[in-house]
Amino acid sequence: MSDKTHVLSHPVVKARLSKLRQTSTSPKEFREGIHDISIFLGIEASKNLQEEEFSGQTPVGTFTGTAIKPKIGLAPILRAGLGMTDAMLNLFPAAQVYHLGIFREKTTLQPVEYYSKLPSDTTIDIVYLLDPLIATGGTATAALQMLIDWGMPVNNIKLLCVLASQTGLNRVRAEFPELEIWVSGVDPELTDRGLIAPGLGDTGDRLFNTLRD
Questions:
Q1: What are the tens digits of pLDDT across the range 156-208?
Q2: Which of 49, 100, 121, 126 has its CA 20 to 30 A from that of 211?
Q3: Does residue 56 form part of some domain?
Q4: Long-range contacts at 62-70 (CB < 8 A, ≥ 24 apart)
Q5: Which residues have a Cβ under 8 Å from the Cβ of 153 and sit 6 or more positions away?
Q6: Does 101 fall in a domain?
Q7: What is the pTM of this model?
Q8: In which domain, by residue range, is 117 found?
Q9: CA 85 to CA 113: how far, in whole Å?
Q10: For residues 176 and 152, is the Cβ–Cβ distance under 8 A?
């Protein structure tokens, strides 16, 4: 792996990911698992954030505290990225949330952009791009290009992903070598339909209970 690609190896994360994989996992349990893993990803991906000091008062005396200095943005890719958003807002309650609408065309597997909540000017210092699955890598690279075109340097973007295929990860890495990626698991294969194998299935459908037979 690149030194900018970080794969979590925590036992709790591995157990949560294993639970997510199972067909028997209910939508409620699936949402909880995505939330929990997103907390781990967010903590790890933010451990080097710049801090600033301030003087405060406890019930007993004064103290010198710290606060996060950069302004944080979250960019969930609709719709599955919504499953990661609340977890990240727990860590960064004041973060600005910019929804990005991108879907993968079923025949060509190419990304199609249909929505962007990015304002005209960048008002943040760091943005966390939230995408539970990196399969072919097409959706992630399209979202990354949207953020770069908006004005965010790639060094100020962090991609957080629950599960990636090795193929998709390689594609993102090749197109954006300076990008920092945090992922909780990497699977070796893609099916001919562009699905991660063994994977999780369709994350959006499992999150929002819209599975079809």
A1: 999 999 999 999 999 999 999 999 999 999 999 999 888 899 999 999 999 99
A2: 100
A3: no
A4: 68/92, 70/124, 70/125, 70/126
A5: none
A6: yes
A7: 0.93
A8: 5-50+66-208
A9: 20
A10: no
Per the structure, the count of domains in the chain is: 1
Is residue 213 situated within a structural domain? no
Structure tokens at 98: 């910019």
Residue 44 token pair: 């790890």
> Which segments within the chain are labelled E, that is strand?
5-7, 51-57, 62-68, 72-78, 96-97, 100-104, 111-116, 126-130, 133-134, 157-161, 163-165, 180-183, 186-187, 189-190, 196-197
Q: CATH no. for residue 185? A: 3.40.50.2020
- Choose from 102-116, 148-162, 192-206 the range with maximum mean pLDDT: 148-162
Eight-state DSSP code of residue 87 = H
